[in-house]
Write a structure and sequence with these properties.
Helix 1 packs across helix 2, helix 6 runs parallel beside helix 7 and helix 7 packs parallel to helix 10. Strand 11, helix 7 and strand 12 form a beta-alpha-beta unit. The strands form 2 sheets. Strands 1, 2, 3, 4, 5, 14, 15 and 16 form an 8-stranded mixed beta sheet that branches. An 8-stranded parallel beta sheet has the order 6-7-8-9-10-11-12-13. The protein has a domain of 301 residues: Metal-dependent hydrolases (TIM Barrel). 29% of the residues lie in helices and 23% in strands. The chain has 438 residues and is of the alpha/beta class. The structure holds (4S)-2,6-dioxohexahydropyrimidine-4-carboxylic acid (DOR). The site of (4S)-2,6-dioxohexahydropyrimidine-4-carboxylic acid (DOR) has 10 residues, from loops. (4S)-2,6-dioxohexahydropyrimidine-4-carboxylic acid binds next to loops.
Length: 438
């Protein structure tokens, strides 16, 4: 007997063609896709012709556990993710304690096994003193390097330390590319400003470009697998368009695609993040880069802080994002800005490929049964109060979006049924394919 049968859906296949039919899952996998499956199942869902996509993969989130559980924890963050159609996440090491030792990684994996309702993987954080252990800590999706300081105290800003990290081992290195010395110079220049928009002046495009240039240089010198997190400027896009080796990948975050300096006027410190939001021209350059493949995929950089914390000065950097990324992108697809094939790549397949996530990223027989069913005919306005993240707000409050998930399936079990998170469902640890250097 199948564990789950979803009937009458429009199934988006890996090549973005659509077949109308049924999909049956067993043992956590997609077992059959056919025009009609007449079989018994533990649970049968009538999809009413809605669009079935691979569960979205969010390759950059901050779920705050351990250490800052008043903002989020693995249970609440993963529930919000499931609500947003995200079935797997990769989580960052700037927790407290930071994920810079095997013990801290083991602790996070154990916490996720207990609390996460979607599949999970973790980065290990690089420091100037743990370089020799970075290759061994496992299982991990990659090494995170903060080249510029952000939330938490992880920072590797000396060239010789970065050089040692790139020279040692083969694992993927994901960089937060902002140059710390450059930020400090600008911070001194704008020390008397206290308006939210000053954040974008303190961390200008120049600082991002400097760090991205250095990361690329080191990646080429050591032929080291590099991923550039949250590219935010037209200058970095131009650099990558000229010079992006095949072993380098890069991502965009909805905040940098949809928000710009004009949002400081409307939203104030809510939209402070690192790297900061930029200008309309940068929004456009990032879209163009996604479209022609200079940028490979989309991550949310879900980084919740409470609204109370956001009212202090300096306000903490980061915004929540897991509940809105898929509707934001599907809304653009409906408006004709991108193709369904691009949506598949940006939201699922390319991140699965870049991080070597076994069994993920495609709706096809034999792949893991991580699915999201979306309603592309219904428009709903995103509202702070409707959010499931612990901090209960979104920088997209007030936006009319379509493509809201109505069903999210993790490992063949319904975790979000369109209204609530089902009790008892748990995600699984992500598994990584070995990937040769370069
Ligand atoms: O805005 C940000 N917030 N950028 C980061 O790099 C970290 C994140 C956080 O953890 O709050």
């Amino acid at each position: 007997m199948f564990t789950l049968l979803i009937r009458n859906c429009r199934i988006v296949q890996p090549d973005a063609s659509i077949i109308e039919g049924d999909i049956a899952c067993r043992d956590g996998r997609i077992e059959r896709i056919a025009p009609a499956i007449d079989a018994a199942a533990g649970e049968t869902v009538e999809a009413q012709g809605r669009l079935l996509l691979p569960g979205a993969i969010d390759p950059q989130v901050h779920f705050r556990e351990p250490g800052h559980e008043h903002k989020e924890d693995l249970a609440s963050g993963s529930r919000a993710a499931a609500r947003g159609g995200i079935t797997s996440f990769l989580e960052m090491p700037n927790t407290m304690p930071p994920t810079i030792t095997q013990a801290a990684l083991d602790d996070k994996l154990a916490r996720a096994a207990r609390g996460s309702v979607v599949n999970y993987g973790f980065f290990v954080g690089a420091t100037a003193t743990n370089v020799d252990t970075l290759e061994q800590m496992a299982p991990a999706c990659g090494i995170k390097v903060f080249m510029g300081a952000s939330t938490g105290d992880l920072l590797v800003d000396r060239r010789e330390d970065l050089e040692r990290i790139f020279a040692t081992g083969h694992r993927l290195i994901a960089v937060h590319a902002e140059d710390q010395a450059c930020i400090e110079q600008h911070r001194a220049l704008f020390a008397d400003r206290r308006d939210p928009a000053s954040h974008s002046d303190i961390r200008p495009a120049e600082c991002a470009l400097k760090a991205t240039t250095l990361a690329l240089e080191l990646s080429k010198r050591y032929r080291r697998r590099l991923h550039i997190l949250h590219v935010s400027t037209k200058e970095e896009v131009a650099l990558l368009r000229r010079d992006k080796p095949p072993w380098v990948t890069a991502e965009a975050v909805p905040n940098h695609l949809f928000l710009n300096r004009s949002d400081y006027e409307r939203q104030g410190a809510r939209v402070i993040m690192n790297p900061p939001i930029r200008d309309h021209e940068d929004n456009e350059a990032l879209w163009a880069a996604l479209q022609d493949g200079v940028l490979d995929f989309i991550a949310t950089d879900h980084a919740p802080h409470t609204l109370e914390e956001k009212q202090g000065w300096p306000a903490p950097s980061g915004m929540p994002g897991v509940e809105t990324s898929l509707p934001l992108i599907l809304t653009e697809w409906r408006a004709g800005r991108c193709t369904l094939a691009q949506v598949l790549r940006w939201m699922s397949a390319s991140a699965a490929d870049a991080y070597g996530l076994i069994g993920k990223g495609r709706v096809a027989e034999g792949f893991d049964a991580d699915l999201t069913l979306v309603d592309i005919d219904h428009i709903r306005v995103a509202r702070d109060a409707d959010m499931m993240t612990k901090v209960r707000w979104t920088p997209f409050d007030g936006r009319a979006l379509t493509g809201w998930p109505v069903l999210t399936v993790v490992a063949g079990r319904v975790v979000f049924d369109g209204e609530q998170i089902r009790p008892g469902v748990r995600g699984l640890p992500l598994r990584y394919a070995p990937r040769p250097n370069g």
